[in-house]
Amino acid sequence: MKPILAITMGDPAGIGPEITVRALNHKDTYEQCRPIVIGDATVMREAVKLLGLELKVNAVDNVKDAKFEYGTIDVYDLNCIDLTTFKFGTVQEQCGNAAFQYIRKAIDLAMANEVDGTVTAPLNKEALNRAGHHFDGHTEIYATFTKTKKYAMMLADENIRVIHVSTHVPLRKACDLVKKDRIIEVTELIADACQQFGIENPRIGIAGLNPHSSENGMFGWEEAQEIIPAVEELKARGFNVDGPVPPDSIFAKAKCGKYDGCVAMYHDQGHIPLKVCAFNWNKETGKMESAKGVNITLGLPIIRVSVDHGTAFDVAGKGIASEDAMMLSIDYATRMAIYRKRKAEQNQ
Questions:
Q1: Fewest Cβ atoms closer than 10 Å to its Cβ: which of 36, 91, 214, 244?
Q2: Which among 206, 170, 166, 195 has a CA at the least distance from the CA of 182?
Q3: CA–CA dist 23, 183 (Å, integer)
Q4: Position 287 confidence tier, pLDDT thresholds 50, 70, 90
């Protein structure tokens, strides 16, 4: 079974089109899934030309018209971009609107079961808002249009998989959001996600908030009042959890395989270690050689996996962006789609 994956092109002026083309230039991609790009066929043809690849672009307006053949990129063509005013590497209102329309279409197709999962290339928040779409990013768009109330962001790269109690809020507010119920909620989400990746009994490490997990109350009270009670309840319910683990050691342990997933208390606590491991900068060339991390929105009724990097306007249109994160995103989305289909069949 090869699931159908809708891959949104992202902001057309960013590196989304070229990393998508590079990923679909790998025969392995077509051996594991049936990809269809949601975007603009004209921009995808420009990206193919930019990279000097011998790939055809098949513009369609219905998933059933896709060929799903290696060597041909199927594009669900929304025709949002005017190439006469389009330019790589710049913030443009038309590109912000285009990126939003691609996402909406991918969500609609997934909700209608026309595709088995979605993979997203990066968008630009400034362009998005200039176009009148006032969202913080992909996660909030997906939550809004799937009517999802309980959701969370999970980042992944090799052995490190991390979910967050809070994300895009001021650090002072993030401390106030460390609550027992939310910790339990996100732990349930990451444990379920790990099972979708094929890990039957995932071991989850739950980070502390304060240095040394407060050192028995010497450096804070959140561990005693919120985190430890959450850990105890999760254990009582049969979850394989450990914590609160000191924040300065939990990710080193995860990298070595001690934990299948980690719960971070706030945005940077989880993002920094993931990106240190996943992003590889070449000092000699002055270029980012690869950025492999992925971002998965958990709690949605549909699958959404994204690259964990931005539009990279500084290198967009130069043909040097790495497809590593896009390849990994496709792999995660494929595994999740296959798991969900098998589980649905078993429940019939």
A1: 91
A2: 166
A3: 36
A4: low
pLDDT tens-place string over residues 4-20: 999 999 999 999 999 99
Calculate the alpha carbon distances from 231 to 161, 224, 242 in Å.
18, 11, 7
Q: What is the CA radius of gyration of the chain?
A: 20
Under 8 Å CB-to-CB from 284, ≥6 apart: which residues? none
- How far apart are the C-alpha atoms of 232 and 194, rounded to whole Å? 21
Q: Do 263 and 187 contact (CB within 8 A), yes or no?
A: yes
* CA 339 to centroid of chain Cα atoms: 18
Closest C-alpha to 203, from 260, 122, 134:
260
What pLDDT digit, counting tens, does each position of 21-80 carry? 999 999 999 999 999 999 999 999 999 999 999 999 999 999 999 999 999 999 999 999
Q: What single DSSP character describes residue 319?
A: T
For residue 138, give both structure tokens: 């992909």
Give me the long-range contacts of 280-289 (CB less than 8 A, separation at least 24): 287/315, 287/320, 288/312, 288/315, 288/322, 289/322
Strands 279-282 and 294-298, bridge-based pairing: unpaired
Whole-prediction pTM value? 0.88
